[in-house]
Amino acid sequence: MTTHVTLEDALSNVDLLEELPLPDQQPCIEPPPSSIMYQANFDTNFEDRNAFVTGIARYIEQATVHSSMVKCNEQPNRVEIYEKTVEVLEPEVTKLMKFMYFQRKAIERFCGEVKRLCHAERRKDFVSEAYLLTLGKFINMFAVLDELKNMKCSVKNDHSAYKRAAQFLRKMADPQSIQESQNLSMFLANHNRITQCLQQQLEVIPGYEELLADIVNISVDYYENKMYLTPSEKHMLLKVMGFGLYLMDGNVSNIYKLDAKKRINLGKIDKFFKLQVVPLFGDMQIELSRYIETSAHYEENKSKWTCTQSSISPQYNLCEQMVQIRDDHIRFISELARYSNSEVVTGSGLDSHKSDEEYRELFDLALRGLQLLSKWSTHVMEVYSWKLVHPTDKFCNKDCPGTAEEYERATRYNYTSEEKFALVEVIAMIKGLQVLMGRMESVFNQAIRNTIYAALQDFAQMTLREPLRQAVRKKKNVLISVLQAIRKTICDWEGAREPPNDPCLRGEKDPKGGFDIKVPRRAVGPSSTQLYMVRTMLESLIADKSGSKKTLRSSLDGPIVLAIEDFHKHSFFFTHLLNFSEALQHCCDLSQLWFREFFLELTMGRRIQFPIEMSMPWILTDHILETKEPSMMEYVLYPLDLYNDSGYYALTKFKKQFLYDEIEAEVNLCFDQFVYKLADQIFAYYKAMSGSVLLDKRFRAECKNYGVIIPYPPSNRYETLLKQRHVQLLGRSIDLNRLVTQRISAAMYKSLDQAISRFESEDLTSIVELEWLMDINRLTHRLLSKHMTLDSFDAMFREANHNVSAPYGRITLHVFWELNFDFLPNYCYNGSTNRFVRTAIPFTQEPQRDKPANVQPYYLYGSKPLNIAYSHIYSSYRNFVGPPHFKTICRLLGYQGIAVVMEELLKIVKSLLQGTILQYVKTLIEVMPKICRLPRHEYGSPGILEFFHHQLKDIIEYAELKTDVFQSLREVGNAILFCLLIEQALVSHSSTPYSPLSLPLLCSVLPFPFPILFCFTCIPSFLLLLSSSPLSPLPHPTLITSPLSLLSPYPTLITSLLSPLSPLPLSYSHHLSPLSPLALSYSHHLSPLPSLSSPPILLSSPLPSLSSRPILLSIISLLSLLSPLPSFSSPPILLSSPLSSPLSLLSPYPTLITSPLSLLSPYPTLITSLLSPSLSSPPYPTLITSPLISPLVALCLLIHQLSPSSPLSLLCPILLSITSLLSPYPTLITSLLSSPPILLSSPLSSHLPLFYSPSPLSSPLPLLAPYPSSS
């Protein structure tokens, strides 16, 4: 049965898809983003105070006083900059005036509260801890404001300038304005004016020191019992202690007398003040001992204090605390992971209902996590503050220059490497744990609200029943009213009302079966007013002070007092935990590590901002990059999050856009530097790894035997960084992998370019080094491609070689340049070693080469040790040119490059033979003796030698014989030997397509008999001449090219397939189809080596009879499978029907087309057409270069077939020559259109020579080189 879904339900289901998380596999090595987020504020600021019943009315009064604290309003928007000074400074001076009135009003309000609480009638009254802490916050505010006013010297200067301009413009004509301006001047000019005014007004209040003592004592108690959560709360308690002692120690009161009366405990405070420096505001710090040293009675009691002595507290040595911090981190992370796996990963956190014990465990875990984060953040801030107060100098740090600025001495040169690593590690722990706890925020919030609700309801409905029963029985009306007020304030009764039959309300005992009270369970927390009222009323029950002679504490039993004290202590953190997200943000806030306004003020206008080298976030980030410490590399993104903290603080706390703009500008600069350095390091690391892998192991072992260690690059953790696809920084999501890939691609291009440039700056012997550099770059590219998307190495190499659109690249050009200007004239061949060596006496000038650019070691082999090692290896290749060099040339230049070099060499040889050598030969022939008879044998050897010496004296004494004639002959000989050795290198290099080159190229410049003689005497491996034999009864010899040996070790088998007398039965030969499995199997047998990389075999001998034509078709089809041409990518098709091919019109015989798409393909097409039905006319394979040219070729062949003796038939070679020029591909036509063979040698030559030769061997020779013979 199908269910019907409404449109609304379907749309709601679609909307739910947006809530599905789609996380990627990116490792989390960065803190949570400081995004724009909504934080619910449940603080009612006591607006709902009238809704709750209180036992004592003045608690509401104190809450009202607490809520109406004066708050400094934010300054108005700054007006535009006007030309006149008054118009510019007037808004700022107005704010200064408001600030003066604010501090005056705040002092009056504070003194009024102190005076009210110190009244003789109320001195013994109970004052809540919350109210005392509020007064302590007042004191902390006065200390901070006074220090800020003292620090800002520019404020006084600006006000003086404004005052002078206003008086000149008569802006302050009335006496009131003049008096206000004078008061402001005095307020700004006097240091510690706020403190002095506060102390003067307090001293006139009798008993003020008692209240201040209570404030100091409550701060000591909270600090000692760690009743604080955020770092700012901890430091506020310390500042309240110090400033409170300073205010008490004056002309009226003496803190040392109070200590003697046990009113305060100076010894305990002295112990707390071992923490010497605490943050004051921003980058301002204060030494706590300064409050003691500036007090009135310090000198005569100096010996009682140890905190004022100059000693370094171990609390500022972060390295010593790292052991405990790591241990705490591991323990808590392990416990958190256990809950995270079950709550977040499995998704059972919010859906499943838990017991009170499970909620309590999560509650305790959240509280402990916040306390750990606060503790670690406090460590970082205290170390940073101590360093700012104690900058280094050139005596303490040798790296610190004497001209360094104070902020530079406090940050850049004030930390050792171990301290920087410790700071980075702690910051990483803080931010990493913040990520994990942030993921569990919803689970924690659920547990926190359940736990707080259960604790309050159990305490109010269950624990308070017994004291309420005793109070009713003993008729303690005040106690009854307080207890009833607590229950009515906080209790959430089942059924929405208190059970009226509760025996405790009548002072009676519970029945024997017990009185059942069901306490509900909800995930609802109390409001801030409820929590404040409950805690305050509970505190009044156990306080030592009370308005009456007898305290309420004496009316309670001991266990009840302990229960109330325990609940009161644990409920202190309820307020923080109810605002878990905000508390987590405050505990991890390290924004003050960037702010530096105080030190900018100290520069007196010389600096408007410090460079990034003095900025703590970049100092820590750069230290990781510079040291390349593998264990710290994954932490490199955490210091950058300090910018997120600073930007968030600038916008939400300071509310200053210009501060955020400065942070953003520094982030842009730092992140560019970060990506630049990181990309260089990653490239250098993988380059060094490639160089180390390819370095000869035997060479490394020999170096080790001699005590030289060539180290492998230490393993590093760059893979994690390369997986970062969305780094969050100042609200931007950055693809770090893409940025690094861009720079590494540029570095790879530069590395290839430097390798080629290095080759261009040296002679031909350095080509071996170039190949190894290319191999190292290729391996580097392969390793990097596993982690990033790079262009293919071949594309990069072509771009660096300038070979993208050009027919030849920089390497080819430099090889020819070196051959022409250095190798041919300056090298001599040694036949015994088969090497070329440089002559002792050069006959030409040294060619000018560009010097190589100085680059970093990682652009060559990877590192300095590797560069030295490879230089030693390649020094053995520097003094000769031999087989290693020729093999390298073949691999690097390829066929196209070698063809270009050969062509240019032939031009050089031709110019030498037809030019310089020919002229000198003519000259020498003229001076040869006309008659030179054979001397008589009686002369003896010395006489005969002298006879010929005398006859040839003129030639021997010819001045230019050795310098010019022999030098030219050397260049010709070196060119021929170079072609020979290149040919040998090509033959030995079986994995690269090749074809014989030198012989046909020499044919174009030498007489015909020479190549035959050269073929069979000098280069016997080039050709194999098979005469007629029983296995090959052919009327003409068969010419097979030298690549046959690479295609098959069975040359006789191929020969036998051409003959009816083959060992293969004739019946099989006649019926052998090109597509048959037997033919394919023979192709595998004929080509055991890689066959697709070899050129096709051209069989140019005519076949004697028609009976062998099917075999010929089979053989050609087999050869087509062995061809590397692109068009031979599919099996050949035998078209036997005259209607199946356009070319079948030329012949009634079958036509073989090697590719079904050959007529539609822009690639060369091999077509074997049987042009004549007569038995005397042999078939010839024809290579048609383009489907667009094939009709013209067909027309030429048709004309020749129909009328061989007509004048049009004589134009066929001309038409075919024109055809070859129209094609973008090499044209090879082997059809014999006349009795003498007609061969088209080159499609790209400027002229198309037609060679006619009666010899059956001469005509096929140029067919062996299907490459361009001219540029």
UniProtKB/TrEMBL annotation:
Q: State the encoding gene.
A: CYFIP2
Pfam families with a match to the protein in the record: CYRIA-B_Rac1-bd (PF07159), FragX_IP (PF05994)
> What organism is recorded for this protein?
Salmo trutta (Brown trout)
What's the protein here called?
Cytoplasmic FMR1 interacting protein 2
Q: What GO annotations for molecular function exist for this entry?
A: small GTPase binding
Q: Which domain of life is it from?
A: Eukaryota
Identify the GO cellular component terms for this protein.
Answer: cytoplasm
Which GO biological process categories is it annotated with? regulation of actin filament polymerization
Domain CYRIA/CYRIB Rac1 binding per the UniProt entry, residue ranges: 77-202
- Which PANTHER family does UniProt cross-reference here? CYTOPLASMIC FMR1-INTERACTING PROTEIN-RELATED (PTHR12195)
Lineage of the source organism?
Eukaryota, Metazoa, Chordata, Craniata, Vertebrata
Coiled coil segments of this chain: none
- Please give the family membership noted in the entry: Belongs to the CYFIP family.
